[in-house]
Amino acid sequence: MQKYKTVLSAVHCAGLRNLISYVCRNEDFKDKPIFLAAIMEVMLVLNKKEIEYKREYKITFSAVQAIAVSKLYAEYISPHADFTNDFTSRMLMIHNEITQKIAN
Question: Distance between CA 23 and CA 75 in Å, rounded?
Fold first, then answer.
């Protein structure tokens, strides 16, 4: 899989950043240190982009970061999903795109 490019609104970036920080504070990653490192890399990418405020950000994730975002959706959002929520719907779309890229 090559790099994954997407466009996220400022609200979606903030939501993803808040989700990652919540998961990092409340989860035990003793048996998942690589996943922790990958989502922290995603957090760094988001923080770098958000230094200068824009309405939309063009974000490029490495393969590992993209898979971590997909796994973050599958493990932490999907079981409790409210699909009327804009953030949840956008994360589902990203998850599906990444899953499709991995399959090809």
Answer: 10
Q: Which helix (H) or strand (E) holds 77?
A: none
Going by the DSSP 8-state scheme, the letter that residue 31 receives in this structure is T
d(CA 72, CA 84): 19
pTM, full prediction: 0.87
Q: What is the pLDDT of residues 44-100, one digit of tens each?
A: 999 999 899 999 999 999 999 999 999 999 998 888 777 778 888 899 999 999 999
Rounded CA Rg of the chain: 13
Cα distances (angstroms) measured from residue 30 to each of 36, 42, 55, 75, 93: 9, 19, 37, 16, 30
Distance CA 97, CA 91 (A): 10
What does the angle CA 24 – CA 29 – CA 32 come to, to the nearest 5 degrees? 120
- Nearest Cα to Cα of residue 87 among 28, 8, 5: 8
Angle between helices 63-72 and 86-103 (to 10 degrees): 130
